[in-house]
Specification:
Two copies of one chain form a homodimer. Chain A has one domain: Roll (Pnp Oxidase, Chain A), CATH 2.30.110. Helices cover 14% and strands 45% of the residues of chain A. In chain A, the strands form three sheets. The first copy, chain A, has a seven-stranded antiparallel sheet with strand order 4-3-7-10-11-6-5. In chain A, strands 2-12-13 form a three-stranded antiparallel sheet, with no helix packed on it. In chain A, β10 and β11 form a beta hairpin.
Chain lengths: 190, 190
């Protein structure tokens, strides 16, 4: 039996990503977003949603660029702090001890310590209400060598990303691998 | 040391959601998407990306509505099958044994057996290239009573959603709860 909960932004799971941007005076800033996702394969694009009051909103609007930095579980405390403090009055790199690196491809900084980085140029800006969706074309993906397999491809378990749930506003670890996509379901018709 | 991997749609983790829609002749169809995310709090909106060749693309374009159905880990085999078969030549409800329910709010079917349902009206359609992004306003959320706590709110662990990774095209279970957002990070400045 289904129960109606009303019109709510309630779906799960969500990623936990850190968005890097430069302010108008060139200061690197980072914030955490849970609302985003890959949205196109060709050209490769990713979407993130940011409230208009955020420093990151002004930064991306000015620079037309951002990075997505995927934190590992090891970076959980620093990542959560990025969602509490504002870059308007806090140097979040300084407080967390994370290191900004200037992207050579887009006008945005990325986080040196995080295992997987997407460097994005803004292609679409959609004002949805409380949030603005920025769709970025992924110009390059960079990964820490330590998370790559012998063929140079990132290993999910080594990236060890964090998830979040809008139900209880909590973080979750990645659980067990359940099997390959486009494969498990064949058993239904066998 | 970071290694460049090129321009790829490579970010993780991704949700595993099943999208419900009606075809022009009124047949209910479901497909699986990994590319999507909540994108606005007010009005509550969610985005999904679908290739233009898919039946779901034609269906949503015609009906201006879709549902997002969050499967539990228990529904993994059926969910994966939805990503293998096409609704153009397969009654995916029939083969999987899942049950379509006509939404009373939007012109789309939802999956009776899945624990969490979002009923959406299309507000924006953004042609990105290989994929089209459909942004839906969430008109209602419905949850199975068995996944609700005593206050009527969904429990993340009871919904028990599936994740996917673009790195190895595999499914993952939800892992351990790591703590509350906007709380853990305070320890950094204490």
């Amino acid at each position: 039996m289904k129960k109606s909960l009303g019109a709510k932004a309630l779906a799960l799971p969500s990623p936990v990503w850190v968005v890097g941007s430069y302010s108008t005076d060139g200061q690197p800033n980072i914030m955490v977003v849970a609302w985003g996702g890959i949205c196109c394969a060709d050209p490769p694009c990713v979407a993130i949603s940011v409230q208009s009051t955020r420093l990151t909103h002004a930064n991306i609007s000015q620079c037309n660029a951002f990075t997505i930095n995927v934190p590992s579980k090891d970076h959980l405390l620093a990542t959560d702090f990025l969602g509490i403090a504002s870059g308007k009055n806090t140097d979040k790199f300084l407080v967390t001890g994370l290191t900004p690196v200037r992207s050579e491809i887009v006008n945005a900084p990325y986080v040196k310590e995080f295992p997987l980085i997407l460097e994005c140029k803004v292609r679409h800006v959609i004002d949805l209400g409380l949030h603005t969706q920025f769709i970025g074309e992924i110009m390059d993906v960079k990964a820490e060598e330590a998370v790559l397999d012998h063929s140079g491809w990132p290993v999910t378990e080594k990236v060890n990303p964090i998830l979040s749930s809008a139900c209880n506003r909590s973080y979750y670890a990645l659980g067990d691998c359940l099997g390959k996509a486009y494969s498990l379901g064949l058993s239904i018709v066998k």
